[in-house]
Write a structure and sequence with these properties.
Distance between the termini: 50 Å
CATH topology of one domain: TIM Barrel
CATH architecture of one domain: Alpha-Beta Barrel
Number of strands: 15
Helix content: 40-55%
Number of helices: 13
Strand order of the largest sheet: 1-2-5-8-9-10-11-14
Largest sheet: 8 strands, parallel, barrel
Bound molecules: phosphoenolpyruvate, cobalt (II) ion
Radius of gyration: 21 Å
CATH superfamily of one domain: Aldolase class I
Order of helices and strands: HHEHEEEHHHHEHEEEHEHEHEEEHEEH
Structural class: alpha/beta
Shape: globular
Length: 442
């Protein structure tokens, strides 16, 4: 057995076994056809013919499995995808951190707080798939029954996402219905405001033109294909949903299309890499500022020994201040070894900082800066940045600071709703898409 860098301290092994036995009997959430199709799209993105947009909550909550929550998360992602496709002039592959993003790696397995003046240690909150956030022994005890509940909520979420995508989002094609009120905000310069307005006008008119072309193209446009992804952290859950399928070789993780390995579990000889190298899905690999180029090359070889197209997505999350020093060496070594990867930038996880009150926040400018620098580095090295990865929500939260909507440190109290990392709110996410679209389109 390879070491698991984030083992879940389950108190009852039999209960885990019976939960995973139930999971193993449930039908899959996704199909191998969809997974193979996504691999083909990723292979095209690796060649610069498509762009990938991945986004959603840091940690999905089981309680977020509601019509409003799913609709608003899906809507912001689809709107961003349209804005990006318009600027980049390439189709965008849409991937949610949806329907399974219920488990979180933690820096410490235990959390200590003062309770009635005395320090008390309890297991950390590992996400709704494992335990509950309240700081009580009952809530924090890892409960294997939650593995089954997570599957059920993923199934309900995905069912609704599929229905919405099949029916087409009526107001997606009418940017006049989008919430673009940030255009009016005072902190935007006149020039940027004019650019945003021109972009959304042109976007609206191209969409109307396509609609006028006839029903087929409208149908094609509105029947959006949407893929799911989550961090493959809890191997009990992932393996129970890993299956063989008729007439195909290998093993598929049928809980999601694009599982990824987190920065904390990517050890070359660890349990997660061992699991991921055995599945046929495309695989994401998150790497931070401390990544050694030789280690990256070893990981790339381990996860994709035959250098198959569409297989590996490398998600860099360096932090705006580190990207210039670390990214070029990584891009160079992969390129000179002739390895096929899709480079994606996650500008969120390297830019987390404490606000004065201790809560985690991220600045809109730092996020944008990491994207800007990453794009410049890829351009300079003749490489293609083929995607972006965001933590965001469709709601009006106040967790990240900045952007034209003008969230300040003082506003964090208004609606700081995340249990984990700070997310871009609706307006920040849409503005980010406009800025990226402009930069990538140049
Ligand atoms: C995440 O994506 O929520 C996460 C924990 O990322 P990373 O592994 O990059 O820290
Ligand atoms: Co996160």
């Amino acid at each position: 057995m390879r070491p698991d860098a984030q083992p879940i301290p389950y108190p009852q092994a039999e209960a885990v076994a019976s939960a995973t036995a139930r999971l193993a009997q449930f039908p899959p959430l996704v199909t191998s056809w969809e997974i193979e199709r996504l691999k083909t799209l990723i292979a095209e993105a690796q060649e610069g013919r498509r762009f990938l947009l991945q986004g959603g909550d840091c940690a999905e909550r089981l309680d977020d499995c509601s019509a409003e929550s799913v609709t608003s998360r899906l809507k912001i992602l689809l709107q961003m995808a349209l804005v990006l496709a318009y600027g980049i002039r390439r189709p965008v592959i849409r991937v949610g951190r949806f329907a399974g993003q219920y488990a979180k790696p933690r820096s410490h397995p235990f959390e200590t707080r003062l309770v009635d003046g005395a320090p008390r240690s309890l297991p950390s909150y590992f996400g709704d798939m494992i335990n509950r956030p309240a700081f009580t022994p009952e809530a924090r005890r890892p409960d294997p029954g939650r593995l089954v509940e997570a599957y059920q909520h993923a199934a309900m979420t995905l069912n609704f996402v599929r229905s919405l995508c099949d029916a087409g989002f009526a107001d997606l094609h009418h940017p006049e219905y989008w919430n673009l009120s940030f255009f009016a905000h005072a902190s935007l310069s006149e020039e940027v405001r004019r650019q945003y307005e021109a972009m959304s006008r042109e976007l609206a008119s191209s969409l109307r033109f396509m609609e006028a072309l006839g029903e087929r193209s409208v149908d094609d446009l509105s029947r959006t294909t949407f893929y799911t992804s989550h961090e493959g952290l809890v191997l009990e859950y992932e393996t129970a949903l890993t299956r063989q399928v008729p007439r195909r070789e290998g093993w598929y993780n049928l809980s999601t299309h694009l599982p990824w390995i987190g920065e904390r579990t990517r050890q070359l000889d660890g349990a997660h890499v061992e699991y991921f190298r055995g599945i046929a899905n495309p695989v994401g690999l998150k790497i931070g500022a401390g990544t050694d180029p030789i280690d990256l090359l070893r990981l790339v070889d381990r996860l994709n020994p035959i250098n198959a197209p569409g297989k590996l997505v490398v998600i860099t999350r360096m932090g705006a201040d580190n990207v210039n020093a670390t990214l070029p060496g990584l891009v160079e070594i992969v390129r000179s070894a002739g390895k096929r990867v899709l480079w994606v930038c996650d500008p969120m996880h390297g830019n987390t900082a404490p606000a004065p009150d201790g809560r985690k926040t991220r600045s809109f400018n730092a996020i944008l800066e990491e994207l800007d620098r990453t794009i410049d580095i890829h351009r300079r090295l003749g490489s293609w940045l083929g995607g972006v990865h965001f933590e965001l929500t469709g709601d009006d939260v106040t967790e990240c600071i900045g952007g034209a909507s003008g969230v300040t440190e003082a506003d964090l109290n208004n609606n700081y709703a995340t249990l984990c990392d700070p997310r871009l709110n609706y307006q920040q996410a849409l503005e980010m898409a406009f800025l990226l679209s402009r930069k990538l389109g140049n």
